[in-house]
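Q: what sequence does this backbone want?
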């Protein structure tokens, strides 16, 4: 299946490890995904203290939620990655996992350091918008 998402680059802005914009054709169905959390099926938080592991679990859960909605990672238009962070290295550790998982589909993304997230021991959450052709 071909993705409806087109990633847009900018030759006039600083080089970045992600696209600066994405577009979808009219008539696409937009999916506004709830923040993917590092939760196991039993509701417990995975990877306590390990941002990289939590990012992997968040991505696994995002992929499952996308699949349930009839989409996949290549249908993602943009992401917002929230990280409980004390240092820039905390952010980079999570970004490296996200970037590797998305691969060549390097969607526009915002990486944000926050002080607290909703679940006990939660350090990472990943929001996404996706688009699929109807």
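A:
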């Amino acid at each position: 299946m071909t993705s409806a998402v087109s990633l847009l680059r900018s030759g006039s802005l600083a080089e970045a490890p992600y696209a600066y914009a994405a577009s979808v054709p009219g008539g696409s169905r937009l999916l506004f995904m709830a923040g993917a959390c590092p939760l196991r099926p039993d509701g417990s938080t995975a990877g306590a203290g390990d941002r990289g592991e939590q990012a992997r679990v968040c991505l696994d859960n995002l992929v499952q939620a996308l699949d349930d909605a009839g989409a996949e990672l290549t249908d993602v238009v943009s992401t917002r990655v929230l990280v409980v962070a004390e240092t820039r290295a905390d952010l980079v550790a999570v970004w490296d996992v996200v970037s590797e998982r998305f691969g060549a589909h390097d969607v526009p993304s915002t990486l944000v350091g926050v002080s607290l997230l909703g679940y006990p021991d939660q350090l990472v959450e990943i929001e996404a918008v996706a688009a699929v052709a109807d």
